[in-house]
Design brief:
single chain; 283 residues; alpha/beta; eight-stranded mixed beta sheet; 8 strands; 43% helix; globular
Length: 283
């Protein structure tokens, strides 16, 4: 990477957070808005989003909060959102890909497909973030120094390229875990591709079993606090000590190792080429 530039003070930054109307995303948005950032919050429920935007403005005493709607089960909606964001903002200092679905909800663990016909967890947790990031990449590069933070998980399973959509051997757990590994593989690719453009890309497991709807539906209780996950995620977005750090996977606040497949260059290339084809982009 070229010599890292210092990121702007948070109060001068514009930050887009997906899945920001609940749980971890909402908490991170409140934290950053409290520090003075301009927040672009994504969600798919207009009523809930309006409540959260008002709540963030009141709690953080910051009215620079905008809402962008898209159901990530539809790639057309992801494209429309990306175009709107790019048209309305000439700078994005950080993109936080946090939106996702868990092992049980929706569908109570049954196999579901997206509006595009893809396995739902693979699309919402990975393909949508891939498409959004690639479409906003020119804005992120023009805004450098900037950061991409992908919320992943320690729950990872290797991708079976002969059955990526899990048509033969489906489980909600496997679908979730392979989608989260795909997020890590995407992060490592981004770090390499953007290494000379002062755009960093890192990913993390925020905390184990936070009290979110996904966790409570899957296991009935939490093992860590939401604040732990918020602190770990916010650190990757804001910490000046990470200005030149890219291509890392973190477990909370600490560097960690992902599933071995994440370090397989051929597997990452295969996944990248698949994603480009599925979302309809040119590589």
């Amino acid at each position: 990477m070229t010599r890292a530039l210092r990121v702007r003070p948070i109060a001068e930054q514009t930050i887009l957070i997906t899945g920001a109307t609940d749980g971890l995303g909402r908490g991170v948005a409140i934290d950053l808005a409290g520090a003075g950032a301009t927040l672009l919050v994504h969600g798919r429920d207009d009523e809930r989003a309006e409540q959260v935007v008002a709540e963030i403005a009141e709690i953080a005493d910051n009215d620079r909060v905008s809402y962008y709607r898209a159901d990530f089960a539809s790639l057309a909606e992801v494209r429309a959102m990306a175009r709107r964001v790019a048209a309305e903002h000439d700078r994005i200092d950080a993109l936080v890909n946090n939106a996702g679905v868990g092992t049980v909800l929706p569908g109570h663990g049954e196999r579901l497909t997206s509006a595009d016909g893809y396995e739902l967890r693979f699309q919402v947790n990975y393909l949508a973030a891939f498409l959004l990031t690639r479409m906003l990449e020119p804005v992120l590069v023009a805004s450098a120094p900037s950061r991409i933070v992908n919320v992943s998980s320690l729950g990872q399973m290797p991708i079976d390229f002969d059955d990526v959509m899990l048509e033969r051997r489906y489980s909600g757990l496997r679908a979730y875990c392979q989608s989260k590994l795909a997020d890590v593989m995407f992060t490592f690719d981004l770090a390499e591709q953007l290494a000379d453009r002062n755009v960093t890309a890192n990913c993390l497991h925020p905390a184990s079993f936070m009290p979110t709807k996904m966790t409570l539906a899957a296991r009935g209780g939490a093992a860590s606090s939401l604040e732990e996950g918020i602190d770990a995620t916010t650190r990757l977005i804001t910490d000046p000590a990470l200005d030149s750090v890219s291509g890392r996977f973190y477990n909370g606040l600490h560097p960690s190792r992902a599933d071995p497949q994440a370090y397989d260059v051929d597997a990452r290339k295969r996944l990248r080429e698949l994603a480009v084809r599925l979302v309809g982009l040119a590589d």
